[in-house]
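During the no-cost extension, the postdoctoral fellow (Dr. R.K.) reprocessed legacy sequence entries with the updated structure-token encoder. One reprocessed record is reproduced below for audit purposes.
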Amino acid sequence: MDRDPRTARQLLAGVSDVASRTTNQLITTPDANREILEQIKADRKRMRAENSNSPITDEQREAVAQYFKLMQGIFGKNNVNAVAGDTENLANIKRTWVNQISQFTIQQMQIGAEHIMKLKMDGELEWFDLGKTLGAIRDANRSHKAHKPFSDQPRLPRPESSKAAGKAALADLKRLLG
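Re-encoded structure tokens follow.
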């Protein structure tokens, strides 16, 4: 995944520059305030566009929507939405986690949701936590060696000498036992 070469400091410097300009200008007329608010919205939109490296596909959108729908069913809509605080932040969280969420199919998410419900009933997962729930979905769909059926391994060839030695040992045992 290609990353924007700018550092977080550069992005924060741009945001603080906008904030200082707007703070200094906010004491002017209402028309100027409107212009400043429009400039802030335009800057936010520009920064969002710069931070999104690749467009989000319809399949990814569907996966994210399905994930949040399942989590709201388990933890409650208010609990899931409380993590984000507001709608804009929730949209940002969805954009940030879209690649991790969309790596699962709908069926895998449903299997994971059942596992999350068991964890919730056991008291191991009381509140919605995006990272923990994605980890639980991953763990629920992980196939361990113990869960795979045993396959017959090819048998070693039995040489005639081992058959003769086995018959001799059996004859000795019969002779001893009588």
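Residues 69 and 77 are 8 Å apart (CA to CA). Residues 56-142 form one domain. The remaining legacy entries will be reprocessed before the final report is submitted.
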